Amino acid sequence: MARGRVIFGFHAVKSSIRQDAGQVSALYVQDSRDDPRMRDLLEAAGHAGLRVMAVARERLDRLAGNTHHQGVVATIAAAPLRRDLDAILDTLAEPSLLLVLDGVQDPRNLGACLRVADGLGAHAVVAPKDRSVGLTPTVAKVASGAAETVPYVAVTNLARTLRALQERGIWVVGADAGSARSLAEVDLSGPMAWVLGAEGEGLRRLSRETCDELVRIPMVGTVESLNVSVACGICLYESRRQRAARTG
Asked: How many CA atoms lie within 13 A of 84 on its CB side?
């Protein structure tokens, strides 16, 4: 198989073809599958001039490393895990909106967070190198193309990165269920970075202490916490809502 990053599943593969077919170095499909969804993918690949290899399902299992590939596996040009956060911030035409994930190690959660970040216009997702799952094939599948559109920045020292953001005038806000202040009570319309921890564990002590502000998502039901991707969606949406209200 050609070198590169492995992705699988219809959403992830078709999104990669649509965004930049040139990054797809190899495309494998299940030889026994012939249905509208597969034909639609093959048509997109044909228009893009991609060579498609029909193989047995067992080979796809080996290529993907699992059986959840839906009969589609591709390799794309390896995206660098570490990107220059300063370079990203320097090119923004609007106040920065970042999502910082502290200790999210479940690939499905990270993939869902990337998808939320794409949908709500976060400019980058930041995570520590030693406490994150990274951009695995499962992450890419769950992200449904967002792993290719949202810059993912892996940093060596998260607290140091947060302080560097503060020096740039970016307000660092942590989501913490124990905070006395609700997110609707805080001005979230300026340049900011949301910091969220893993479900159940929350923010690490140093991350919590580094934040400029801690806020909670108001809960009125019986559950005590939300899945991290759901919490990301609520927090990023509130920032976008406040910005729209301020400019409108």
From this structure: 5
- The DSSP-derived string for 16-74 is HHHHHGGGEEEEEEETT--SHHHHHHHHHHHHTT--EEEE-HHHHHHHHTSS-STTEEE
* Eight-state DSSP code of residue 220: -
Spatial neighbors of 11 by CB under 8 A, at least 6 apart, are 141, 144, 145
Q: Is 94 helix (H, G, I), strand (E, B) or coil?
A: coil
- Residues 102 and 195: beta-carbon distance below 8 Å: yes
Q: What is the dihedral of CA 108, 51, 37, 150, to 10 degrees?
A: 30
- pLDDT digits 0-9 by tens, 168-206: 999 999 999 889 999 989 999 999 999 999 877 789 999
The amino acid occupying position 21 is A
Q: What is the pTM of this model?
A: 0.73
Nearest 5°: the CA angle 112, 142, 50 is 140
Taking phi first (over 0 means left), then psi (-120 to 50 degrees means alpha), and beta for anything else, what does residue 188 get? Answer: alpha
